[in-house]
Design the sequence.
């Protein structure tokens, strides 16, 4: 908690001490003010902060829902690739196996690339063990790398249809899965590129800090020397609530308050590589200092 709101709480405690000294030692009795107006102000600020926090959590939960859909649709796409794409002749067997593996690996590359794009990071390190270096060099010229990978998967699905390895209905089903993945990417990018209105952050922060400054003035008449404890305790609640709303605004900011994209992508990779019957499968992500990234 000290790391979370430690600095503003320490400043509030120092201000509380100044108010108490002025009231008890310097006998500045006019400093003490009625508590009822502050109670009404606190109720109003609580409503404002609660509304902002609900909006922030709504963004966070929508992001988690979108990535839940990405998990499900990634599994669906891999299953469709492995079970629906079938060779027509003996000569097709190796080509079909290559195409199946290529679709699955591109999907693994897509989720990791999208994760890095949303976090504002370069995706190339994540792709080096998934795609050939030559393909990575070509992808570096693309503005939206994740979208380009989606296009390449779509072209492979169309190739399977043109070669007669899937029928028209199977092609439509796989294309529908790709469309749902593209919708999830668009939803994630909308959250990332559309920040909360600045008023939602600016005014609650100002109101909370103002309220905290008024706390010792309203409490000192009744609490006396105990004012710093009472004021700091109430201030802790309001400061923490305000900070929670700020932290949840951007679920892709690469902090401990994000949705655990790294763990989600690793889960997808493990599941998809299992569908390819690979022997060497990476381990699932584990929490680091109690945080799952």
Sequence:
């Amino acid at each position: 908690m000290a790391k979370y709101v430690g600095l503003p709480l320490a400043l509030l405690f120092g201000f509380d001490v100044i108010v108490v000294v002025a009231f008890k030692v310097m006998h500045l009795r006019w400093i003490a003010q009625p508590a009822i107006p502050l109670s009404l102000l606190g109720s109003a600020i609580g409503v404002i902060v609660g509304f902002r926090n609900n909006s922030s959590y709504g963004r966070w939960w929508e992001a988690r829902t979108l990535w839940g859909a990405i998990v499900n649709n990634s599994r669906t796409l891999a299953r469709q690739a492995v079970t629906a794409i079938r060779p027509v002749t003996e000569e097709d067997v190796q080509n079909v196996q290559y195409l199946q593996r290529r679709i699955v690996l591109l999907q693994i590359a897509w989720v990791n690339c999208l994760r890095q794009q949303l976090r504002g990071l370069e995706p190339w390190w994540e792709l080096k063990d998934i795609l050939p270096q030559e393909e990575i060099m070509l992808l570096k010229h693309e503005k939206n790398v994740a979208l380009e990978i989606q296009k390449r998967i779509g072209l492979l699905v169309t190739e399977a249809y043109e070669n007669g390895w899937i029928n028209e209905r199977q092609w439509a089903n796989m294309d529908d899965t790709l469309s749902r993945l593209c919708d999830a990417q668009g939803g994630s990018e909308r959250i990332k590129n559309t920040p909360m209105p600045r008023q939602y952050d600016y005014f609650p922060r100002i109101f909370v800090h103002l309220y905290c400054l008024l706390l010792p003035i309203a409490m000192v008449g009744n609490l006396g020397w105990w004012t710093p404890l009472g004021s700091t305790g109430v201030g802790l609640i309001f400061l923490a609530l305000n900070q929670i709303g700020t932290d949840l605004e951007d679920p892709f900011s690469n902090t401990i308050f994000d949705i655990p994209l790294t763990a989600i992508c690793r889960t997808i990779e493990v599941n998809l590589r299992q569908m390819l019957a690979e022997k060497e499968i990476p381990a699932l992500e584990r929490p680091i200092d109690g945080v799952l990234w």
